[in-house]
């Protein structure tokens, strides 16, 4: 502030001691109030607010009776900031302010500059004594925060110990570089707890630097002319925009102020009038002219494509500009004009370029000082050790001040597979949390743009619930169209003074269309075109180099020919080729007819459009139902090919998705994911497999609604094929009224029949260079017939055949590896013994099966019952083959009898009889009891029972002790599931329920459906003593033993005694087996005690004596 002369009232410079007009002495100005001095500083709003609050508290404390402001306790302070942000100046003001308001007891102020850490530590005690009652100011304290020699304890920890020893006297004020000292404070709770105040002094913005420059000029009694002020403003904005690590903040402004004053005084000394006004010519500036908002937007408009983004960015820029101008005029206020952005798009779509334009726009409007862009990715933010993530994010945010922080592939912070990313499980989460805090703490000082694939950004937003609310602007950049890709190539060529021949232009048109049509997720858009252009330049150079000297004129060096555009253009299939592929498919006659009719219809519509100019957009969406492996994907592929050849769809690709490809785990994200799938399918076919699963919850229904909207909005741009099981798809179409009306055709693809499965096997074999041995066709057909007969809703059709072929190839390789003599033809031949499962598919002879039944001991009534059943089935089979009417039996059985009576053995023989008669294709036996059907938790029983039934398909499900299922709700759930499958899969498997006679009768009474399902009753009587003796002798023969002469009577007597003493533990055949095992054990003990070796004929080792037989009571 100028000093006024008390004699003549002339204004003089603040430092003047004598009046420049009259020469009178000018008294020194009184020392200013430190608080006024602090508030007079430029910027530092947060620190001023906190210090002002402290002063008001101190005044209140001092005003109380006996109160002392110095009793406020901890006043230790940390000040961080880059070079020239005023740390030392602020520390001095804080010292004076503390003393002025009684916060410190003495005027002692000791300033220590940490030049040498070791010297500082030696003199620390002396500094403490000198500063007693006042302030100890330690400048460059960031040097104390670095680790000691050999990674030891940082010196700052020893300072903290000294502070603990002396309490709050003196007040310690630390100052240091922002990055080093702030990171140490944030990572060290111990350090943060010692200091009451932590002030971060930000770099000065251009407007603040202008204030400092003007203050310096006024301090010398001068003023800036408006034109000079504008030049200074532009120069300082340029300095801020181009600043680097050496940027000195306020010193830049004071140096500029001194330079302006110097040029003014030199000009006055040269004869110009001393009017105290610095003119524009006094400002030496190397700042380039600033571009206007309109110029930047015009550059944006010059970009190829991005029409939606251009409109949104222009509207946003205009909105913010209007808000700013209204605030300047005092009508309204500038809102939160610091927008944070989400920009999505595939690689090479220009996300980084758009971000740079946003930075330039915000700078031109005046919202950002620098308008630069700091580009990072997850690998640059996460770090490798604890605390480094926060440091890296803070460093990136500091560098982005006045500009934009661009985080590419931001979802990589969640550990999503980005190279170099360690993910949220380690440091990614810390990086996100730190970024979120800085966006709040430094609101308005920088803009954050996160970018990546649209369908993966939800991974980033799930990392912190506060993230979605921080980003208020979303921009999506579509892939470039073929025309736009061509335009980009031509722009690149023109920029480097290349021209394209007519043929090259035509080829470029085809190439960019093919690139677009075949693009995948990794398609790089503009980068791909850049590669194509670079390849064209290289090809041109190589072509010219091969020409003879003198054959090339100057124009040829700049002319790109068609052959220089290197790209493999696939030959587009004709309609006849597409229909030919359709005809080669096995079965599917209905589908073939439909696609053929559709092709003819579309041809007529195309001719109608040509003749009349009227185009009809047909509904081509279709529902396909069928089991797995029936060729739904192949049908969708052929449909896409046909529609492409007819020009209905430009690409004809098939995008195959299921529920997981459309539904996101969070509400609101499903629409984005579904739209992304549809975007990939544009120009082709979207195949939604198991579409019915979308109707199961709110997330799936959101996908349905999104799909229906796009089917209407993008009518004719893509075709939807919804696929799944018939009944489920019928229910699916009923869940939303709009579904049925959108799908014009419904087709069911039947399971492949055995002969068709054989044809599929041979086609697949031929495709892989194999031939099926003619001798293997018949047994393979029988095996496929068994698979077909045993199929359920999960039958894999062609997938099952493919799996069978792959196993056959493995077995053929093993066979050939063991064959010493093999020729080239052997490697192409698949024999019957190469194909797994053909052994089981061998025909079973009925007589052999019945003979096996006859060989069983006892069971005469059961044998007669089974033979009568077999005779009936033989006759019915013959009547059916003769074309006569035949009747069928319900072939589910109830086996009643005690344990060990042969129920399982008879069930196994019965399964073979049914196979021999063609009733069951596989004839295997699946044995289960209650534990094999009932789950441990609610909801597990039905899947477990269904699994058992699925394994029994084509054979027999033998449920032992079935009555145990009726004991509780879990068992009854198993019964109900079993009954439903017996009805739904009638004739595909046989159930035999077995158990005690009385318990099985009670079992039937527990459910009315059981008696009607089990119509065949077989009762197993206990074995007689004679039958038990025969079983014992059968075991002896089977195991190679003989009885001593005369021992038969002892065996029969033993069985008579056992039978007479039988109780609930009696187990018939199992009891005989136990007796036999005990006799073998007794024989072994006898021989071992006698020291018998192995005789030449082994007679003693095979002989069972009467003494070896166990007592009947045992």
Automatic annotation (TrEMBL):
<dbReference type="InterPro" id="IPR050773">
    <property type="entry name" value="CbxX/CfxQ_RuBisCO_ESX"/>
</dbReference>
<dbReference type="Pfam" id="PF17866">
    <property type="entry name" value="AAA_lid_6"/>
</dbReference>
<dbReference type="InterPro" id="IPR003959">
    <property type="entry name" value="ATPase_AAA_core"/>
</dbReference>
<dbReference type="InterPro" id="IPR000641">
    <property type="entry name" value="CbxX/CfxQ"/>
</dbReference>
<dbReference type="GO" id="GO:0005524">
    <property type="term" value="F:ATP binding"/>
</dbReference>
<protein>
    <submittedName>
        <fullName>SpoVK/Ycf46/Vps4 family AAA+-type ATPase</fullName>
    </submittedName>
</protein>
<keyword id="KW-0067">ATP-binding</keyword>
<comment type="similarity">
    <text>Belongs to the CbxX/CfxQ family.</text>
</comment>
<feature type="domain" description="AAA+ ATPase">
    <location>
        <begin position="73"/>
        <end position="205"/>
    </location>
</feature>
<feature type="domain" description="AAA+ ATPase">
    <location>
        <begin position="889"/>
        <end position="1024"/>
    </location>
</feature>
<dbReference type="GO" id="GO:0016887">
    <property type="term" value="F:ATP hydrolysis activity"/>
</dbReference>
<dbReference type="InterPro" id="IPR003593">
    <property type="entry name" value="AAA+_ATPase"/>
</dbReference>
<dbReference type="InterPro" id="IPR041627">
    <property type="entry name" value="AAA_lid_6"/>
</dbReference>
<dbReference type="Pfam" id="PF00004">
    <property type="entry name" value="AAA"/>
</dbReference>
<keyword id="KW-0547">Nucleotide-binding</keyword>
<feature type="domain" description="AAA+ ATPase">
    <location>
        <begin position="618"/>
        <end position="753"/>
    </location>
</feature>
<feature type="domain" description="AAA+ ATPase">
    <location>
        <begin position="337"/>
        <end position="481"/>
    </location>
</feature>
<dbReference type="InterPro" id="IPR027417">
    <property type="entry name" value="P-loop_NTPase"/>
</dbReference>
